[in-house]
């Protein structure tokens, strides 16, 4: 861990990352890609020590209320969060200034802040997005070794739903020759149905790989799946989009099962929901980007 002063905290789309780098150890993590210019060791988390001050200033001066996003690059519930409470501090500010929040995480630690999420959601909207990749807990430990397993995430989703917090699942990534099976997709969707998930985001059955991310991923394939790296190289070369050979069939199954069970499953519709600020006290709806 190290600290850094930053010049700004909110992006043009009102997203933020309070930390830089991650300790979850997910073998496919796109945030390791060189294009993001993380110069320090990825596991040496950079803490944006003035982030909350910058966030308060930004929220004070916004002309319109909107949704605030976090978790796109770094999970807001890495273990350091229990000590530093940056995410909780950000949620307190979002609540104080009556904005909405969209969180992305892989951790059931989000339940620590269920009180704040309920307060925000009573006024506008607090949405928790959770990544699910595999039913197999042993495989989950290989793919996402330093974060809670799929069953705990699914249980957290159910707890959030029962507390009135809307949830969305990211079915991503689905790794070719590893977790790209109908049984896996069906089982994850069964979990989503049971947990009352509002929508499932899926960009296709596959993964994206680019410089920095690809090398780390291939090293982990050698460690956990001997011989599979060579199959990837032979099949995909240096392609950015690495799509399962069964993508078409699995996507048809995905859309059919979600539709049958009343789960949103078209990405545009889900992002439209996520980006729309709702003032429940005034009956207004405003774009995430306003």
Main sheet characteristics: 6 strands, parallel
* E-strand count: 13
Query: Stretches where pLDDT falls below 50 for ≥5 residues?
Result: none
Outline, from the CA principal axes?
globular
N-to-C SSE series? Answer: EEEEHEHHEHEHHEHEEHHEHHEE
Q: How far apart, in Å, are the first and last alpha carbons?
A: 34 Å
* Global structural class: alpha/beta
Strand content is: 15-25%
- Our Rg estimate from Cα atoms comes to 19 Å
Tell me the helix content: 25-40%
Q: What strand line-up does the widest sheet have?
A: 2-5-6-7-8-9
Number of H- or I-type helical stretches = 11
**What does the average pLDDT come to?**
96
Describe the fold and architecture.
- By secondary structure, this protein is an alpha/beta fold.
- It has eleven helices and 13 strands.
- It has helices spanning 51-61, 80-84, 86-96, 114-123, 137-143, 150-162, 182-194, 213-224, 228-236, 247-260, 267-275; strands at 2-4, 15-16, 19-20, 46-48, 67-70, 100-105, 126-132, 167-171, 199-201, 206-208, 241-243, 276-279, 284-287.
- Strand 12 (276-279) and strand 13 form a beta hairpin.
- Helix 3 (86-96) runs parallel beside helix 4 (114-123).
- 41% of the residues are buried.
Map the helices and strands:
Layout: E1 2-4, E2 15-16, E3 19-20, E4 46-48, H1 51-61, E5 67-70, H2 80-84, H3 86-96, E6 100-105, H4 114-123, E7 126-132, H5 137-143, H6 150-162, E8 167-171, H7 182-194, E9 199-201, E10 206-208, H8 213-224, H9 228-236, E11 241-243, H10 247-260, H11 267-275, E12 276-279, E13 284-287
Parallel strand pairs: 1-4, 2-5, 5-6, 6-7, 7-8, 8-9
Antiparallel strand pairs: 3-4, 10-11, 12-13
Helix pairs in contact: 1-3, 3-4, 7-10
